[in-house]
């Protein structure tokens, strides 16, 4: 039996053990996956203990994704771009850091939601870790434009600057207030405002007809989701992204791509 785990703090609420158990059963993989609560100042020690005990790989969640980035001795291109690691692979003489979050977001949109990003006007709200993690995978889908807007405009500007080489002129930044008069086919909320039940000061009209409004949080209806629904947008939460980033990690570890449809259905309680 191969051992995997998710490291977080807190971690008791994590859906990952359930998701990976469903993937393993479905694909007949002989593996075990547990949640490990790492002390806030003891992430590295906790991971090293798991490696010593024979762990094959791990997921990393809040607040350790940057610590995992530093711990890795090798990084994939998408982990480098994200500046964070959510998936670790323990090899003979290396700790490989990967990031499957952005791939999970893109796959959820394309496969589960049937939404194609190519040529679309895309607005990404937020400039923290969650936003950074999805920029490169979004650019790879060749949107018509990608605007990053953030409460602190300087942070959005920095984020845009760090991707100019990959962006071929389609990436720009904006403040919330200067979004007035613009509209988008896809609006992604990568801020953590929903966790605090906070409202984003978004101007009316950013949701173009037929727009998809994507909230990266899950498990609650946020003010962003209510606002978007009122504006006539199609609304999605981040549960599909959660399942798809897990599927991508499972694929990296096991070389098998699980069927996410029944897993997502089970998580939604349908
Ligand atoms: P995460 O890893 O979830 O991205 P983070 O790196 O702390 O967490 O980033 C949080 C993001 O949510 C930031 O873009 C933050 O905006 P600021 O950079 O201006 O702080 C955004 N955010 C959080 N609460 C917000 C609120 N009430 N209104 C607008 N933006 C908010």
What does this entry look like structurally?
The chain has helices at residues 16-27, 43-52, 65-71, 77-82, 101-112, 129-140, 153-161, 164-167, 223-230, 239-254, 260-267; strands at residues 2-8, 31-37, 57-60, 74-75, 87-91, 94-98, 121-125, 145-149, 171-174, 184-189, 207-215, 234-236. It has 270 residues and is α/β, with parallel strands linked by helices. Strands 2-1-3-5-6-4 form a 6-stranded mixed beta sheet, with helices on both faces. The protein has a 6-stranded parallel beta sheet with strand order 9-8-7-10-11-12, with helices on both faces. Helix 9 links the parallel strand 11 and strand 12. Helix 5 (101-112) crosses helix 6 and helix 10 packs across helix 11 (260-267). The longest helix has 16 residues, at 239-254. The protein is globular, with a radius of gyration of 18 Å.
Helices and strands, in order, run as EHEHEHEHEEHEHEHHEEEHEHH
Quickly name the level 1 CATH class of the largest domain. Alpha Beta
- How many domains? 2
Strand-residue proportion: 15-25%
Let me know the average pLDDT. Answer: 96
CATH topology of the largest domain: Rossmann fold
What class do helices, strands and sheet pairing give? alpha/beta
Rg for CA atoms: 18 Å
Supply the CATH superfamily name of the largest domain.
NAD(P)-binding Rossmann-like Domain
> Stretches where pLDDT falls below 50 for ≥5 residues?
none
- Sheet with the most strands? 6 strands, mixed
